[in-house]
């Protein structure tokens, strides 16, 4: 019996493991060919790079070098060498320290808020039919220049509620829940028997219960605001033991009349709160009617004379809104304007990154029982991390150089409170300081602060190329 021979063994490469990508040899081979071609023809490569290098040197390298050299000389040019004296004066200048503090606030708050809102908008609008229209509206501010946006928000933050949208909204909400004072700015007529007391007014003499015509004359109210008010009147009947009287505008149109007495044509002040005070305690309260009369009932007055008081709530000025551009809120208000402009930029980039997220991973997580918040936090955000880093670093570089919005929005009285490094550089060099040595030192300082973000971006780009 013939022995059977086994078939020759063939060597087979083991199949690649699941999830392991095959090496991209074509891309590496192309890169090697390109490097060898450049090595063989260095002059051809230099000719192609020369225009770009000339432009780069003229617009970047030369200005940076000149600024660094200029920062070592005084304000009078190159005749006075001061070395690092400009840098010393920069860090001892209170305005520069304020600018550094504000720049730190900008770097921490503005990019984070803009990126966070962009992420939220990109995720929430992914599933709605009108998502494209919403993204268009949010992105539209990017088409507006910083100067135009600054002018817009200078009007938005205007103190007058009739002009500023922000204060119009705030005043509208405030007046919905808190009633405005009846007659702001009103004051007693001289010799009318009223004296100031805690923001309001109180009668100088005591009044015994049963008084039928306690006179409380006021002035300081524009008659035009009382065009629909009734003629002031004396109480026609006062109950026994009560205190009655009239609150009115003691001013006769056209002149004439007797001070402290109700004359024809003098208007009633309706809705004024009147209190009866005894021993520093309020014992009764009444409100004047449409003809200005009021009645403090006898049952609450007790016995003994009282003083009549008009509380300060009748005369406090109406709420005029928030001082958005005051020393406290000016920086936060400008950051709000910046976020309004740049949230659309963050949203569009994040939405582009979101479009590349594998839907299978999201659906698999939902099939495993994960809720939407868990899917967002554990899958969507980690997969979008490279895009979020790009957006965040870009906005950090952008806010370090912020100038236009601060210069346009902040009024002169609070410009120093909103100061940033780029604005301080301008003010020191051209805005009245006329010291280009200090201005150049500020420029070098600003460059040093921007360089870490630039190097981080370059390092990230190189890592992505080697993947």
From TrEMBL:
The chain crosses the membrane at residues 43-64, 104-124, 136-157, 337-358, 379-400, 437-458. Gene3D superfamilies: MetI-like. Signal peptide: none annotated. It comes from Streptantibioticus rubrisoli. CDD domains: TM_PBP2 (cd06261). This is Sugar ABC transporter permease. Belongs to the binding-protein-dependent transport system permease family. PANTHER family: BLL4140 PROTEIN (PTHR43227), DIACETYLCHITOBIOSE UPTAKE SYSTEM PERMEASE PROTEIN DASB (PTHR43227:SF8). Coiled coil: none annotated.
């Amino acid at each position: 019996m013939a022995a059977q021979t086994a078939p020759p063994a063939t060597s087979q490469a083991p199949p690649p493991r699941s999830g392991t990508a095959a090496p991209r040899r074509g891309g590496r081979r192309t890169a090697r060919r390109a490097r060898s071609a450049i090595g063989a023809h260095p002059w051809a490569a230099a000719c192609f790079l020369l225009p770009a290098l000339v432009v780069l040197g003229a617009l970047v390298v030369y200005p940076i070098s000149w600024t660094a050299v200029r920062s070592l000389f005084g304000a009078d040019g190159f005749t006075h060498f001061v070395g690092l004296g400009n840098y010393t004066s920069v860090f001892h200048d209170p305005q520069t320290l304020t600018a550094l503090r504000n720049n730190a606030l900008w770097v921490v708050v503005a990019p984070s808020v803009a990126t966070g809102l962009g992420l939220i908008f990109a995720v929430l609008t992914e599933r709605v039919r009108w998502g494209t229209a919403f993204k268009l509206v949010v992105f539209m501010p990017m088409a507006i220049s910083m100067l135009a946006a600054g002018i817009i928000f200078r009007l938005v933050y205007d103190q007058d509620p009739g002009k500023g949208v922000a204060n119009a909204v705030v005043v509208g909400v405030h007046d919905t829940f808190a009633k405005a004072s009846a007659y702001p700015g009103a004051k007693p007529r001289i010799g009318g028997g009223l004296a100031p007391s805690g923001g309001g007014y109180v009668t100088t003499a005591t009044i015994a219960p049963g008084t039928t015509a306690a006179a409380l004359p006021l002035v300081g109210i524009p008659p035009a605001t009382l065009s629909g008010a009734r003629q002031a009147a004396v109480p026609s009947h006062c109950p026994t033991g009560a205190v009655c009287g009239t609150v009115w505008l003691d001013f006769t149109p056209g002149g004439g009349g007797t001070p402290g007495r109700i004359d024809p044509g003098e208007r009633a002040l309706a809705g004024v709160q009147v209190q009866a005070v005894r021993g520093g305690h309020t014992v009764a309260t009444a409100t004047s009617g449409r003809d200005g009369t009021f009645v403090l009932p006898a049952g609450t007055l007790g016995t003994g004379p009282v003083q009549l008081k008009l509380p300060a709530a009748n005369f406090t000025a109406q709420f005029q809104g928030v001082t958005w551009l005051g020393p406290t809120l000016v920086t936060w208000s400008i950051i709000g304007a910046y976020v309004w402009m740049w949230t659309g930029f963050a949203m569009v980039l994040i939405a582009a990154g979101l479009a590349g997220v594998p839907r299978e991973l999201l659906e698999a997580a939902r099939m495993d029982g994960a809720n939407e918040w868990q899917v967002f936090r554990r899958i969507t955000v980690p997969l979008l991390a490279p895009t979020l880093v790009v957006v965040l670093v870009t906005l950090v570089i952008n806010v370090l150089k912020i100038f236009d919005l601060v210069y346009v929005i902040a009024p002169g009285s609070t410009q120093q409170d909103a100061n940033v490094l780029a604005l301080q550089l301008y003010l020191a060099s051209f805005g009245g300081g006329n010291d280009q040595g200090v201005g150049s030192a500020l420029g070098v300082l600003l460059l040093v602060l921007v360089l870490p973000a630039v190097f981080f971006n370059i390092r990230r780009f190189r890592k992505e190329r080697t993947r």
